[in-house]
Design a protein that fits this description.
Thioredoxin-like_sf, Glutathione_S-Trfase_N, Glutaredoxin, alpha+beta, four-stranded mixed β-sheet, Glutathione-S-Trfase_C_sf, Thiol:disulfide oxidoreductase
Length: 219
């Protein structure tokens, strides 16, 4: 059994995508970041950087008792290795999946997150900051669009790289992006959005946060 410490953010969705795809049994432990629950001492024992998501695996492979993991990329890699799923066995494709996982962690996530902050949440709207992060988000969308020009998924087969990137692209409207400007990315996005596990993962949103936005309607 996996305990998932979760809130309805792109990083939280990464892990529910994986768990719903694999059918691993899990229990959600909601951490309402709007109420600063991420600073609770018990949660900090699991996630010392006071960020969601985090997990506790009560049945790790080494059989030495529960293990906790924080940081969404590390969680995806841990779960992929635990299950033997969604991380290519071929060494070169595995490397590609990891490259793009780290690309998301180091680029797409932080830049899109700053886009969200300055464009939506900041009390003071600073035009320079908004323009900077909207443009950088568009550049990163272009990088991923080019990658997807000749392949179905980021590392050819659906992997943790796709699961890491998808929830950040799902907020494209908030990021002031138009997916029609990135046709390969749009095709990839629509294919993942239609997966039953994706629908189930995003269907959890309303159970925990009635103000959160689920999958966008691309109509």
């Amino acid at each position: 059994m996996i305990d998932l410490y979760y809130w309805t953010t792109p990083n939280g969705h990464k892990v529910t995508l994986f768990l719903e795809e694999t059918g691993l049994p899990y229990t959600i432990k909601p951490i309402n970041i709007a109420k600063d629950e991420q600073f609770a001492p018990d949660f900090l024992k699991i996630s010392p950087n006071n960020r969601i998501p985090a997990i506790v695996d009560h049945e790790p492979e080494d059989g030495q008792g529960p293990v906790s993991v924080f940081e969404s990329g590390a969680i995806l890699l841990y779960l992929a290795e635990k299950t033997g799923q969604f991380l290519p066995a071929d060494s070169r494709k595995r490397l590609q999946a990891l490259e793009w996982l780290f690309w998301q962690m180091g680029g797409l996530g932080p830049m899109a997150g700053q886009n969200h902050h300055f464009g939506v949440f900041a009390a003071e709207k600073i035009p320079y900051a908004i323009e900077r992060y909207v443009k950088e988000t568009a550049r990163l969308y272009g990088v991923l669009n080019k990658r997807l020009a000749d392949r179905e998924f980021i590392a050819d087969e659906y992997s943790i790289a796709d699961m890491a990137c998808f929830p950040w692209i799902a907020s494209y409207k908030r990021q002031q992006q138009n997916l029609d400007d990135f046709p390969h990315l749009a095709r990839w996005f629509d294919a993942i959005a239609a997966r039953p596990a994706t629908v189930r993962a995003y269907g959890l949103v309303g159970h925990y946060n009635d103000k959160a936005v689920g999958l966008p309607d691309r109509g």
